[in-house]
Amino acid sequence: MQSAGHAVPVREAAGGPCGPGPKRIAPGPHRARAGPDDAYLPVYSSTRARAPPRSYRSDATTHRPMPIRALIVDDEPLARTGVRQLVEPLDDVTILGEATDGDEAVRQIEAQAPDLVFLDVQMPEMSGLEVVREVGVEAMPLTIFVTAYDQYALDAFEAHALDYLLKPIEEDRFEEAMERARQQLRQVEADTLNEQLRGVLREYADAGETGGIERFTIRSRDRIYFVDAEDVQWIESEGDYVALHDGDDAHLVRKTMKKLEEQLDPDQFLRVHRSYIVNVEHIDELRPLDHGTYQLRMANGTPLKTSRGYSDNIDALLDATG
């Protein structure tokens, strides 16, 4: 299992001289969208097409089917153990490994190209369906979704003939799902699987999946804890990490700024600089500087300077708040 990452230093926010004319603002919708479809996360296509399933190719020496190569993805250790205990007795399935979050799942899927993924739907930061989007429908292996009771998800899976397992997993239901997976790996064309995945992504998005991250999972060396998104005042880029500032403290999360911005509520969080995203609820004032830039003062007193490249976001914020 891959490590969640190592700690990196958090630098202080950049400041600068404040010009005249502070303007206090109230929170509200602020980011212009191209159209209603922008409410949905895109289904990224991949340059790597799905390879024919290796599981049912014959071994060159024995002429027997090769085992199904499976990956288990769930943020809960007990849930991963439960799936592993069901899979291990099967002679025709080999477990490649486990992933503890969406980012790790994407990395392992792209690196190992499993034939089958047991994919938890409700994971913090990157859900199972966001993993599908990130990998790309064309490159996503055959997937059995694992979920706690979620009627939106269940309806979507059933409507598009995708298999799922409901927690806690019953052994009979697991055996049914595995038999369907074997049949699909033998018979179903890649185009059919692609269309099934696209259908469930569209339908689940229609059900309101895209409200934005509500809580961050923070993994430190000796513990795992949570930070509510509403408490985060501003976010700073730290290479492959981001630092979540909730007043005097900073919490590191392994995620790029671009990926995080796509997962945040656009009516709450605003990109103002290539290195900063701010929570509009925590902006106390802003002062105009030169060339369309501003000096923001956050609720904890931290000054942040906006950049010209994100001036449209500031203008939309000011228009929305009057």
Automatic annotation (TrEMBL):
CDD domains: REC_LytTR_AlgR-like. Signal peptide: none annotated. Residues 69-182 form the Response regulatory domain. GO terms for molecular function: DNA binding; phosphorelay response regulator activity. Residues 171-198 form a coiled coil. InterPro entries: CheY-like_superfamily (IPR011006), LytR-like (IPR046947), LytTR_DNA-bd_dom (IPR007492), Sig_transdc_resp-reg_receiver (IPR001789). Residues 216-320 form the HTH LytTR-type domain. Keywords: Coiled coil, Phosphoprotein. The modification 4-aspartylphosphate is found at D120. Residues 1-39 are annotated as: Disordered. This is Two-component system response regulator protein. It comes from Salinibacter ruber (strain DSM 13855 / M31).
